[in-house]
Every structure is written in structure tokens, then in C-alpha cells.
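Contributing new records

If you add data, match the layout below exactly. Sequence lines come first and carry their own label; structure lines follow with theirs. Keep one chain per record. Anything else will be rejected by the validation script.
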Amino acid sequence: MTTPTLPALRRRTLLKSGLAVTVLSAPPIVSARGETPVRIGMVNPLTGILSALAASEVEGARYAVERLNKKNGILGRQVELLVEDSANDVGTGVQKTRKLIERDKVDVIVGDVNSGIAYAMMGVTNELKVFHIVPGGHTDPITGVDCKWNTFRICNTTSMDAAAVTGELVRRFGKRFFFISPDYAYGQTLQNNFIRNLKALGGEFQAELLPINTSDFSATLIKAKAYKPNVLLNNMGGLAQINCMKQFTQFGMQKEMALGGALFELESVRAVPADAQAGTWAMEWWWDQPNVPEVVSYVADFRKATGKTPSARHWFALVAIESVRLAAEKAKTMDGPKMALALEGLELPPEVALSAGKAYYRAGDHQLMSDIFVGDMHPPKGNPDNVFTIGSIVTGEKAAGPVEATGCKMVHPA
């Protein structure tokens, strides 16, 4: 497969959506009031194994920018979204982050889906004192031992997701687990957190860490079959998780053991056959919350704008863009250090939180505390995206534990 050139990739990435877009090479535009727009730079793996998740985050961000610009933007200025492809590579992600800040003069950085890239990007944004939001990179140190004053995270830590679902899996299926996890920051921390929770409940396990882009899982699945676990936890992400799910069902293993894990995201569920739409999982946001009017309204409007049902990735991006607005409005400036102080402890309004429970950025570590939905995946019931039934809701605070346990020592610039 030939890798598209950067100009071609930009055109394809920016023009395929009907929502508000910006050509990256264009000079800053000037609003009717003579002010340059607020510029938000987004770095995500638009090519590579996590591209479907990244595409949803970009689409969600464009939708949010369009929505904001219809309401006078941020501080009365229109908003531009500039998107760069990290290509699922740490070095590329860092280089694109620096380009957006130093050449394109963005006010804010958003990204990356890949935890390792998001973690590396933090070094650049912290050095250059740029406000940084991580929508969907889960590895714990981002808001843990390596937390930064300028970085906020929307998705859960891996410890939160593992804490939310481990007990349910043990209660329903048993204490013998087999883990298949990707061998990079996300998979390593997620597997370690699952193991910690499982051991606390008296469980036992076997585990395999595999390259993030693994496509053939046959040897690992044979090992899992021989171990005879109560539950197989598929912690892979994106296309790798899809391939693993397909092979799991091709081997007929769904008849021998339960299936589950931290995340089986809507983008991936849509891509597997019906018999692989199974298992017990955590959802970090879910579109079917009929008793929450703000969710009903958002889902209807998003479907009208895009023709799609929003996923957690779309919500992550919406929260990221709206959090920039909320921080700027509270601080009355786009200055990074002042915006960071403004966002600490801030509770999201209902039309952004999109949940029955409250959602807020914890001051001590900048981690968003929001509800986690634990339930069962299944083939569609009526609506083609009705593939998940919520069994219980775990609050972010309960899953996260105290700030002290994260290892975060937040230090603000003088």
C-alpha cells in the first residue's frame, strides 16, 4: 500500500467532511472584528492501526468547532481546527506538535489517541507552555507520576477502566483470566492494573504482550485455549482488536470462555461479525441515555450533521473543544497558564458532560472524573448501533481512587 503524500493526506483529511474545516497551509484569517481566530492544533494517527478511532476524534472536533462558531466562537473569536497526522509514530507526533506550535502558531494542542505519542507530546507542550488536552490516550502517567500543569485528560486512566470492570467479570464468570494486550504504554499499564485488581480478588492469570500492529493471533489464542480461563480479556486496540475478535470466534472459543476487557469501542464493534459482538466491557461514554435530555439532543443533532451515531471518541473531542472555551471564558484569556488554573476543578455543563452524573476536572491531577458504563456487548437490536446494554454505572471518583494514589505532584509555573 502506498503512503499518501502529506498534501494529499491533508486534502483528504480536511475535505472529506461536510463540517467546518481549515486548509492547514492557509495564512491566518481575520474575523469581521479584525481579530485572528483561536487556532486549535490536533495531532492524531489518521493512518495506521488506530486510524478509525482517530478519525472519529477529528470528526467530533470538527462538529464541536462548527457548533462553537455558530455561537460566537471563543472569546468572540472564530475557531480554526488544524489537523496533523502522527501516523502512529512517536517521533512524527512530536515533530507535528512542534510544527503546529512554532510555525502555525496554534493556541492549544489536542491529541493523541496513541498513549505513547500523547505522553511524548506533553514534553513539547510543557516546554513551550501551551495548553494541552489529551482526549483519548489512556496510559496512567499522563495524569499520574508525570502529570503536567498544562495537560488535562478526558478519557479514563487504564486504572479507572480496569477498576470499573474487573469485579463484574469475576463476579459473573470466575477468577481465571487470560490477557492479550498491546506492548506499548496503554497495553502495559492496562494489563498491570487488571492484574492488580484480579490478584486483590484472589484470581490467577496468564498474559501475552504483543506488538500493537499484530494481525495473526492464532498462536496466542492456542495458548489461551490450553489455559482454559474463565475470561479472555482482549485489550488490543483498533484494527488489532478487530482481528483478534474475528479469530477468537473463528476458533469457536466463545463457546468455551467468556470475553471482556476494558474497551471495545463502537468503531471496532461495527467492524466485526455478529458473533464477535459480545463480552462484558466498560464504555467511557454511551449514546443511548434516554433519560438525559442533553444526550438525546446531542445524538439527534450529530446524526443530522454527520449521518452517524456518535461514539465515545466523538464525545472526547466535543469535550476537548468545549473545555478550551470554558477555560478561556473563565480565565478571560487564551494564555496557557491562566487557562490551566481556570480549568482545575471546573464542572462541565450538562450539554458538554452529556451524562446523568457530574463530570469535572480534578484539580490535583487534571483527570476528568466522569461516569463509566459497564455492560454487555451484543448484536444490534433494532438500531444498528444499539449494540451495548448498560448494566451498571461506576462513578469516576470510585474508579480513580484518591489523587495521592496516582503519584501526581502538580507544579504550576511561577
